[in-house]
Amino acid sequence: MSDTAVQPSVPAVDKLVIRFAGDSGDGMQLTGDRFTSASALFGNDLATLPEYPAEIRAPAGTLAGVSAFQVQISDHDIMTPGDAPDVLVAMNPAALKSDLHLLVPGGTLIVNADSFEERNLAKAGYESNPLEGHELDGYRLITAPMTSLTKGVCKDLGVKTRDAERSKNFFALGLVSWMYSRPTQPTLDWIDAKFADRELIIAANRAAFAAGHAFGETAELGHQQVVVNAAPHEPGTYTNISGNMALAWGLVAAGELSGLPVFLGSYPITPASDILHELSRHKSFGVTAFQAEDEIAAVGAALGASYGGCLGVTASSGPGIALKSETISLAVSLELPLLIIDIQRGGPSTGLPTKTEAGDLLMAMYGRHGESPLPIVAARTPSDCFAVAIEASRIALTYRTPVILLSDGYLANGSEPWRLPDVDSLARIPVEFATGFNHVGADGEPEFWPYLRDDMLVRPLALPGTPGLMHRIGGIEKEDGSGNVSYDPENHAHMVAVRAERIARIEVPDVEVVGDPDADVLVLGWGSTWGAITSGVRRLTRVGHKVAQVHLTHLNPLPENLGEVLRRHRKILVPEMNMGQLVKIVRSEYLVDARAISKVTGQPFTAGEIEQVTLGALDD
Amino acid sequence: MTDVLHIATTDVGEVPATKRSDWQSDQEVRWCPGCGDYSILTAVQLLLPELGVRRENTVFISGIGCAARFPYYMDTYGVHTIHGRSPAFATGLAMTRPDLDIWVVGGDGDMLSIGGNHLIHALRRNINLNIMLVNNQIYGLTKGQYSPTSEIGKITKSSPIGATARPFNPVSLALGAEASFVARTHDLDRRHMQEVFRRVFDHDGAALVEVYQNCNVFNDGAFGDITRKDVREDMLIDLRHGEPIRFGKEQQFGVSRRPGGVQIVEVADVGVDALLVHDETTADPSTAFSLSRLAEGPHTPTPIGVFRSCPRDEYGHMVSDQIAEVTDRRGKGDLAALLRSQPTWEV
Fold first, then answer.
1. Domain contains A167
2. Cβ atoms within 10 A of the Cβ of A132, count?
3. Domain spans of chain B?
4. Chain B closest CA to A149's CA: distance in Å?
5. Residues sharing a CB contact under 8 Å with residue A64, sequence separation 6 or more, in sequence order
6. Inter-chain contact B339–A239, Cβ cutoff 8 Å?
7. Cis peptide before A417, with omega less than 30 degrees from 0?
8. Does the distance separating the beta carbons of B5 and A474 come in below 8 Å?
């Protein structure tokens, strides 16, 4: 098998969106992942969108069981997995039925012909075989009997028929690798490493991959072959990273930068569990990953660890964050550092566990009892989760407060190339604990007052084990300064005000306006909408439209210049994967006429959607 | 954790001698006059000087309820957390700070109702906590509702014609939750409390002691049938490891095995040799469980003392051993190497 990526005669395209779709058992996530990895190593820019059902194995062959993985690869800077696929790989009739409408007109459709038999067609709701009619006339249809060809090449290897059939996704991967000129070696290396010691499986997957690759050549698909060249990236070392992986590494980094052991308390929940999995692997950094009995224990243990001097972290999704609410308010009252990570998903309740949404902003902002303000930060891309995890930790440790970090299912599972930062250039997070008395009592004796604040209204932390500084703290209102229980009305009013003020005083960087600062229309975003908004706005500015863009990392406190920036623009559009939550905040904060652009389908915005809606606002 | 926090402990040299007053905070104790919690507090404050521990290494963690005010009265480190969650908070602290002696104090509502899940999991894991479950069979701080240990038929503000839910037996529950140490004592016998609390302290792992406590305002005399001085000898069965289980003014009663459990017998009827010899250390908790079922409620002869003390691996150590083992094998984590642990490419 020659490495197709280096053939000079193949025509180049600037970008390509491929969607792999099949049954949950067909290995589409793995196929997409491998294609992505090979493309990343080849040097493309890329963005991915894995989409899979909540059930581990929905009934085979049904529409409910379709699992898909979309990836855009390009020779230039991109921010989204693409508006619509140019290529759809459909491993069975259900995948074709559910995803065909996404494919661009005239797009390439690659199907596993073997699966288009009576039972599967019926399960997908086809009365006749679409491969035999005219339904697909508007597409470039490539049919390959993937299952039988895979079984054929595996027969002589002594692989069981069932195992051979499982390798058909590697046939599909081989075929698209040939068609789109991907390097093959990374995939072969991966197969060898992944299935080490399982010789037959290695042989079957390699054979299927080679057969798919050869199919492209022998079936005379040469006219279909294109290449997407490497994108110009800044010099550096790159890796392809998912949001949850970047977030977990950011927590490890925050531990190193602060010199504190990281303690993660977590309870399994989609789409946050990968953070627990990843941190469980990094014990050599002194990281303790604790799988608690429930969400409440997870945050309780994290807060207990923070009290003892760790960087206490808990990670969950909306339903779990709701359960943690009471303990988060305790952390507000105790003024202890705590990092709460919310990987948002479709809600309310179980909602759409494997689909994305950003409906927890107002819960993060207001979803606690009493007046309990806390800082909120949000990541904008998968790799940004690394930096935001460090920033959230910095705020928590510096200001001794719980901090909520918002990510979502799209960022968590999506991936992109990431230029590795120089770890020596990462700013340290200085943390000091109290070691001596800070007050003289009425009797002239020195004392430790746990709520005697500094200029930033931050209280000292004396860790248990520190001689002489024994003190008691609790959820009951405390007298400012001494920290003793106090039911005094004036003190409570004072403490409520101090708790608000100390969050308001947290220093966050000003927002930067991208695009025309005098534009009529400003698109304001937060979280994972950054990619779609940036691409959509760029398309408009490239053809001469005046549009500006602002994206928020810090949602509480808001950047100091935000009000002034917002007031400079006649129209403010706020695309959000919710019914308009940031809109409510900026309207009440700045009295500006911000308009909500909502999408709550469980899928991220596309650049095209942002382009259209912004264009509409420009025409108003 | 491999390197326990670099905080300035004076964990070198001799532990300074302390007296009761060293363990008393400057806060006014605000339990109702006559509350059983006073004697529990006194027992603890008298015991701690005898244990040779440092005040700064001692932490009291509590949830919500009358008993949960305990930390405020101790001149140690302390956190008054939220309802039911003290075992969870304490678990995170104990896992990361094995240098501390952590006491968890809570009532029957706190530990068995709203926090029941955390309690059973702390016991199951065997995390190093000294857990005092102060049982008064009532919700006191909320002014008198039935609790998870209130008896069926109990008349309270929230059960005006009688509670209908079967109560928990905390010792049975703890044994069922795989606890490695389970004991019971009561607030009218300081010496017994101290003896049992010392055993709780000595146990490496989760140690639970149920303390029968009188709430003289909302449930006065709940344990009077067995703890009153005049009846105590006939009604409390003091378990002693390695000794035949006997009780009564004349030691005339005892406990013997019966098919499927244990029973109260008259020694004169069966002879001393037929009595059950108490063994705290048996791996199988069945006999301890049977002993916990001898009395339906605190109205008939009831065992107190240590039901079970059967050491097994402590959770925090197991966790930190894994961390130490992996760190030894792979070397201390290197962030730059971590970032390069997936396939990378150069531009």
1. yes
2. 9
3. 20-239+299-331
4. 31
5. A53, A55, A58
6. yes
7. no
8. no
A233 is a domain residue: no
Interface contact flag, A286 B8, Cβ < 8 Å: no
Query: Do A334 and A354 belong together in one domain?
Result: yes
Q: pLDDT tens digits for A204-247?
A: 999 999 999 999 888 877 777 889 999 988 899 999 999 999 99
* Nearest CB neighbour to B80, from listed A290, A301, A474: A474
Tally of CB atoms within 10 A around B292: 25
Buried b (16+ CB within 10 A) or exposed e, A361-379: bebbbebbeeebbbbbbbb
Q: Which residues of B touch A485 (CB under 8 A)?
A: 27, 72
CATH of B20-239+299-331, picked from 1.10.12.10, 1.10.10.250, 3.40.50.300, 3.40.50.970, is 3.40.50.970
Identify the pLDDT of residue B28: 92
Cβ neighbours for B45, distance < 8 A, ≥ 6 positions apart: B20, B23, B24, B74
d(CA B228, CA A182): 85
Chain A, nearest residue to B15 by Cα: A467
pLDDT of amino acid A1: 55
- Of A197, A228, A259, at which residue does a domain stop? A228
Q: What are the chain B neighbours of A287 within 8 Å (beta carbons)?
A: 323, 333
Residues in chain B closer than 8 A to A265 (CB atoms): 92
Phi and psi at B11, nearest 5°, equal -70, 35
Residues with Cβ < 8 Å from B43, sequence gap 6 or more? B190, B193, B194, B197
pLDDT in tens, B302-311: 999 999 999 9
Instruction: State pLDDT tens for residues A473-504.
Output: 999 999 999 999 999 999 999 999 999 999 99
**Residues from chain B contacting residue A473 (CB–CB below 8 Å):** 78-80
Check B345 against A40: CB less than 8 A apart. yes
Inter-chain CB proximity A286 and B323 less than 8 Å: yes
Instruction: Check CB contact of A144 with chain B, cutoff 8 Å.
Output: no
pLDDT at A2 over 60: no
The answer on A468 and A371 residing in a single domain is no
Q: Please answer yes or no on whether B82 and A476 come within 8 Å at the CB atom.
A: no
In this complex, the residue of B7, B78, B342 whose CB is nearest that of residue A309 is B7
Can you tell me the distance from the alpha carbon of B77 to that of B83, in angstroms, rounded to the nearest whole number? 19
Whether B44 contacts B90, CB under 8 Å? no
Distance CA A355, CA A408 (A): 9
| Span A346-398, pLDDT tens digits | 999 999 999 999 999 999 999 999 999 999 999 999 999 999 999 999 999 99
Q: How many domains in chain A? A: 4
